[in-house]
Amino acid sequence: MKILVTGAAGFIGSHLAERLAKMEHTVVGLDNFNSYYSPTLKRENARVLKDAGVKMVERDLSLPDLVMSLPVDFDYIFHCAAQPGIAATSSFDSYLKNNVIATENLVDFAQQFLNLELFVNIGTSSIYGKDVSCNEEKIAQPISNYGVTKLAAEQLVLAGSRAKEFKACSLRLYSVYGSRERPDKLFTKLIHCGLKNEPFPLFEGSLSHKRSFTHINDIIDGIVACIGKEAKCDGQIINLGIDREYTTKEGIDAVERLLNTTIDIKKLPARSGDQDRTLAVIDKARKLLGYNPIVTLEKGVQEQILWAKSLLKTL
């Protein structure tokens, strides 16, 4: 199969592109290598992908005329590219450009394909809102610019399915962690602070926040399970995550235990748009995709620690 992965140099996209290449698919990875976080990390991910046989294309999805830089005979599109997170430094324009306009351009690009099997949008539990412990039927009530624009992006893709232009689905991911995770995310920051003996910045009230921390390997298992299940997936929204929850404190405790250290906490004011709770309800994923996440928090954090240590040696 010939597969396009957008955001291929990022956290989830790089793992997905690498897995698809190992499955012996022909993979084209697209990324704009923007400066939301260090492009050096993305370039390192791209190097690994090139070694795995992935063809990398540097391109900004928010610009029109994708046909000028990409082939037009893909069997699958996996859309991971997005402006992530809820950082105060990210403007609404950046969310609009990278989540909505970029997705609309990709949808326009996909409409010309005669043999596209499936367009898979990578969504987020942030679409649901502040307190998330629901199935996919819950009405979306996002509380951040990120969640609002990811909902818009999701609907642009699913509109293509409803209009019978192509088969499509959206996967809403829950609190993904693991190797190649962004520097602004919880476990990357925790591990860095533990290794460097630096204080960890913790937003007020977040110690008791609950999350379905889901290791990247389990997430990629769920994403690639869509291949060959186009009829089942078409038009569907599907949650992907682990169906148990941990507090932020439990996450901190796991890192401290595995690093055999104590991490000092630097308290910051509460962050607007943060969710209180996300618990993945994955009955639909189990039924449609045979999804079965198995990585424990202990094993997942250990994998990320090993990656972080190797990164310190190479970059």
What kind of sheet is the major sheet?
7 strands, parallel
User: Unreliable segments (pLDDT under 50, ≥5 consecutive)?
Assistant: none
Q: Which series of helices and strands comes N to C? A: EHEHEEHEEHEEHEEEHHEEHEEHH
Structural class: alpha/beta
Structure summary, number of beta strands = 15
Number of helices: 10
> What would you call the shape?
globular
Task: Outline the fold blueprint.
Elements: E1 2-6, H1 11-22, E2 26-31, H2 39-51, E3 55-58, E4 76-79, H3 92-110, E5 118-124, E6 131-132, H4 145-162, E7 168-173, E8 176-177, H5 186-196, E9 200-203, E10 210-211, E11 214-215, H6 216-224, H7 230-233, E12 237-240, E13 246-247, H8 248-259, E14 265-268, E15 277-278, H9 283-289, H10 297-314
Parallel strand pairs: 1-2, 1-4, 2-3, 4-5, 5-7, 6-15, 7-12, 8-11, 9-14, 10-15
Antiparallel strand pairs: 10-13
Helix pairs in contact: 1-2, 1-6, 3-4, 5-8, 5-10, 8-10
What does this protein structure show overall?
- With 315 residues, the protein is an alpha/beta fold.
- The protein has 10 helices and 15 strands.
- The strands form 4 sheets. It has a 7-stranded parallel sheet, with helices on both faces.
- α1 crosses α6.
- The longest helix has 19 residues.
- It is globular.
- The two termini are 34 Å apart.
- The model has no long low-confidence stretch (mean pLDDT 94).
